[in-house]
Amino acid sequence: MKNLVIICFSLAVVSQFVWGLKDSNIDFGDCDGKGPIFYQEMIRVPGGSYTEETRDICTSADDIKIKCVEIKDLRNDGTNGAVHITEGGPGQKCVTIKFKSQYNRAMEFNITVWKTY
After folding, report:
1. 45 exposed, middle or buried (CB, 10 Å; 0-12, 13-18, 19+)?
2. What DSSP letter does each residue of 13-68 carry, written as one string?
3. Which first-to-last residue range defines the signal peptide (predicted)?
4. pLDDT per residue over 53-96, tens digit each?
5. What pTM does this model have?
6. Domain that residue 66 falls in
7. Structurally, how many domains does the chain consist of?
8. Phi–psi pair at 81, nearest 5 degrees
């Protein structure tokens, strides 16, 4: 039983370390001369044990696609957490973004998504 507790604790520490190494700023797609913005949100989540947030962002018109997804770390002190695009993105109608905090740390990100003309 003691070994099981040690293994579980070790896995939790390692997984937190790996998530913490991820880049918290993402520019995904053709972000030069970005074009019209169709979605913008500032995410502020208070600290908690491994808090996770997910955003599903979709364009409304059939002929409009995502051109660029920009996610900026507003804390800039290394404590913000990690962000990953898990589905979709440029050239698609939707994008799914997952945010995961560091242990007992708050998160502050700004999301901006541009559409094609």
Report:
1. middle
2. HHHHHHHHHS-S-EEEE--TT---EEEEEEEEEEEETT-EEEEEEE-SSTT--EEE
3. 1-20
4. 899 999 988 888 999 999 998 887 777 788 899 999 999 999 99
5. 0.73
6. 2-115
7. 1
8. 115, -160
